[in-house]
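About this split. The held-out portion is used to measure sequence recovery: a designer receives only the structure tokens and must propose an amino acid at every position. Recovery is the fraction of positions where the proposal matches the reference. Here is one held-out target exactly as it appears in the evaluation file.
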């Protein structure tokens, strides 16, 4: 391990960055250095620009996939190497704004009915019923289910924040059925490796299989259930601020984007066309004479 890599690791640990973020940053900087076959200390804005061009034109990465690279290089040069560089030295491509595809209530029902395994069905039901990220679902512990207060405790979710979400009475019944069948002790959903929870990849695979069995044509991932949770709450009249707290969003603007996909809220708004006066009926024309 080089001294620079170790220094960057210490800087990330001191700032309590998430483990996934630390691994991603180290991977991005390592790829950057290998491409130019030099230490990042010897590279500068011109190499950063060339690297981003390479990622976009040669590797064909989408703008959203370039974001982690920018974040890693900004941290390395501004924090670890203390270079006084501006944002222009780390050009961030504009990402196209795409709305998530939302499953209807009927599609959610069909999807759950297509899951054979009780454990897999319970995991995905928790993701929808509580609006959890897949990383939050797999790291739930048995003690996080508080049936007395009817809440689920999410420990160290995104941005290292704890929060509480609702525990649906119907979900509690399903969790009890699952508990009597599996008897989990520590992790609510243990994985194949003793002492470790189920992996996100295993949950994603279960989601893909269920989608195929359901016959639903819309794309479905574990995160689709979280999108559906927020949208269905909004369509039911739940306040956006309350949804923000349940989702664990840092900014209200992130939650507000669901206003664009809540069809019963947005598309149910009367069109001004309906306010126009109805035109007088056109008088019937006499039939044209027949000549043949």
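Reference sequence for scoring:
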């Amino acid at each position: 391990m080089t001294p620079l890599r170790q220094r960057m690791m210490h800087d990330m640990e001191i700032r309590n960055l998430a483990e996934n973020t630390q691994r991603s940053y180290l991977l991005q900087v390592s790829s950057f250095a290998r491409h130019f076959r030099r230490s990042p200390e010897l590279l500068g804005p011109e190499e950063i620009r060339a690297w981003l061009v390479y990622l976009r034109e040669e590797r064909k990465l989408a703008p959203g996939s370039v974001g982690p690279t920018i974040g890693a290089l900004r941290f390395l040069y501004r924090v670890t190497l203390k270079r006084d560089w501006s944002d222009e030295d780390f050009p961030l491509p504009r990402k196209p704004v795409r709305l998530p595809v939302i499953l209807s209530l009927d599609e959610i029902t069909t999807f759950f009915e297509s899951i054979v395994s009780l454990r897999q069905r319970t995991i995905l039901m928790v993701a929808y019923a509580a609006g959890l990220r897949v990383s939050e679902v797999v790291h739930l512990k048995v003690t996080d289910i508080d049936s007395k207060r009817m809440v689920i405790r999410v420990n160290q979710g995104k941005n290292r924040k704890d929060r509480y979400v609702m525990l649906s009475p119907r979900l509690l019944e399903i969790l009890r059925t699952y508990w009597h069948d599996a008897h989990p002790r520590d992790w609510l959903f243990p994985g194949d490796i003793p002492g470790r929870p189920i992996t996100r990849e295993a949950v994603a695979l279960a989601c893909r299989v269920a989608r195929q069995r359901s016959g639903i044509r819309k794309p479905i991932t574990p995160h689709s259930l979280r999108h559906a949770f927020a949208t269905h709450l909004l369509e039911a009249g739940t306040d956006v601020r309350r949804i923000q707290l349940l989702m664990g969003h840092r900014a209200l603007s992130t939650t507000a984007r669901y206003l664009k996909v809540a069809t019963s809220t947005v598309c149910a708004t009367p069109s001004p066309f309906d306010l126009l006066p109805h035109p007088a009926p056109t008088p019937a024309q006499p039939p044209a004479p027949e000549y043949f």
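Annotator remark: The first strand starts at residue 145 and ends at 146.
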